[in-house]
Amino acid sequence: MLQVQFIREHKETVLEGLAKRNFTDAETIIENVLSVDEKRRTTQVALDNTLAESNKISKEIGGLFKTGKVEEANKLKAKTGALKEQSKTLTEKLNSYSEELQNLLYQIPNVPHASVKAGASEDDNEEIFKEGIIPNLGSNALPHWELAKKYDIIDFEVGNKITGAGFPVYKGKGARLQRALINYFLDKNIEAGYKEFQVPHLINQQSGLGTGQLPDKEGQMYHVTEDDLYLIPTAEVPVTNIYRDSLLQASELPIQLTAYTPCFRREAGSYGAHVRGLNRLHQFDKVELVRIEEPEHSYAALDDMVAHVGKLLESLELPYRILRLCGGDLGFTSALTFDFEVFSTAQNRWLEVSSVSNFESFQANRLKLRYKATDGKKQLAHTLNGSSLALPRIVAGILENHQTPEGIRIPKALVPYTGFELIN
Fold first, then answer.
1. In whole angstroms, what is the distance from residue 231 CA to residue 229 CA?
2. Bridge partners of 386?
3. Is the pLDDT of residue 79 over 90?
4. DSSP secondary structure string, 127-167?
5. Do residues 116 and 110 make contact, with C-beta atoms less than 8 angstroms apart?
6. What's the predicted TM-score (pTM) here?
7. Measuring CA to CA, which residue among 270, 291, 292, 269 is closest to residue 280?
8. Distances from the Cα of 318 to the Cαs of 135, 137, 379, 410, 418, in angstroms?
9. What is the DSSP letter of 113?
């Protein structure tokens, strides 16, 4: 959530940033924010003055009673009664303006970093890096959903019977490959200095508001209505909320966290060939990275996370590229995002496997996540997160890119975790 003071002091910068996102009615909502904030501040001043006057008169009344001036004291008591009614009215107005302001701010996405280009969609994203050789598998190459059936490692039909489309069943070496990838990613993250956490798979509304999934993506989340809880769309939400309403010391930063969780996304409206097989699921496994940083260090931390994810993909011997997202494709809470895509040889297309983002102070403001700097001042921290990695499309990439006439070759780095070198 943007800070009102920042909007007041940098109105044109905010509008220019929102224009990069193609955010409709940006000027109208910003003007509404400034108008409501002005009313809120004016009301706050009036309330403070009324309370101060009431306190002053109360002291005078006490003095008058002590000196025996009862009649004068009673006259002033009538005035304090009117002031109390006035302060009650002003408090109600202040609460109303504060709530209205909060609701307006929840609707405004983060301001993109200066390096983010304007753009309408994913077609306008910038490729900034490419690594690996795309294998030439010939005309007999199979897509991963056919390989999964051929080697009996993933059953989409049984998952559909049990739950519905988008809930596959992994079995045999398919299940072991899933478990191997989770353990491999966690171990590599821990080696890089991240601390592992296990977190709940359901969150309350405040947690969703804190990291920005609510109200922005409410329709994309599974909602347990009776308990008013939400199934998590990513481990980012519960992991980051560990530090909601926290005041950290500068000496505690940076904080580096990693966690494995299943993720649940309704993906309403998703259909077509591009979502076939593992390309898009309603339930999938993902290992996540979260960092909490001092503002001056957050972009160096982002570079470090990007390099870490790149090394993981290289170790899996997968051809990949890195995209810097344009404003039109940027997530609601992000200031700058790099997407990693693995090439799907059999599908002849790139598949997103990770997003690494810097949210700057946007999430921290919603979370009330602050730290005390070395000069003693309290300020908002910066939060970052990245997939390290999401499993479905990694599995699709391994199956398709490493297919051979003998079977699916397991990358060397992963063999100690799978316990086998070939799926056949």
1. 7
2. 289, 356
3. no
4. EEEEES------TT---HHHHHHHTT-EEHHHHHHHT-TT-
5. no
6. 0.93
7. 270
8. 10, 14, 41, 11, 17
9. P
- Residue 365 in 3-state DSSP? helix
Strand pairing report for 195-197 and 255-264: parallel
Here the tokens at position 312 are 């993981």
Instruction: Yes or no: say if 398 and 408 are a contact pair by the CB < 8 Å rule.
Output: yes
Query: Amino acid letter at 261?
Result: T
For residue 414, pLDDT over 90 is answered with yes
Strands in 403-404's sheet, in edge-to-edge order, are 403-404, 407-409, 422-423
* CA nearest to 424, candidates 408, 404, 401, 411: 408
- Work out whether strand 369-372 and strand 246-249 pair parallel, antiparallel, or are unpaired: parallel
Residues 346 and 222: beta-carbon distance below 8 Å: no
**pLDDT at 270 (0 to 100):** 55
Cα dihedral 100, 105, 108, 110 in deg (nearest 10): 180
Q: Is 222 helix (H, G, I), strand (E, B) or coil?
A: coil
> Tokens standing for 157?
């039909």
pLDDT in tens, 317-345: 999 999 999 999 999 999 999 999 999 99
- The C-alpha atoms of residue 244 and residue 246 are separated, in whole angstroms, by 5
User: What Å distances lie between residue 401 and 133, 137, 373, CA to CA?
Assistant: 10, 8, 48
Q: Hey, CA dihedral for 350, 352, 356, 360, is it positive or negative? A: positive
Exposed, middle or buried by CB within 10 Å (0-12, 13-18, 19+), for 406?
exposed
Q: Which two structure tokens, joined as six digits, stand for 339?
A: 């997407």
* Amino acid at residue number 297: H
How many angstroms separate the CA atoms of 411 and 187, rounded?
16
Q: Which amino acid is at 67?
A: T
Tell me if 132 sits within 8 A of 319, measured CB to CB: yes
Dump pLDDT digits (tens) for 140-154: 899 999 999 999 999
The structure tokens 């800070």 sit at 3
**C-alpha dihedral sign at 173, 419, 256, 316:** negative
227: amino acid identity, one letter: D
21 and 328 in contact (C-beta within 8 Å)?
yes
Encode pLDDT of 107-133 as tens digits. Answer: 999 999 999 999 999 999 999 999 999
What the block records as the tokens of 196 is: 């592992």
Q: Is the pLDDT of residue 279 over 60?
A: yes
**What's the pLDDT band for 274 if we cut at 50, 70, 90?**
low
pLDDT tens per residue across span 354-365: 999 999 999 999
* CA pair distance 75, 55, nearest whole angstrom: 15
- Tokens representing residue 403 in the block: 């297919």
Alpha-carbon distance of 8 to 31, in angstroms, equals 10
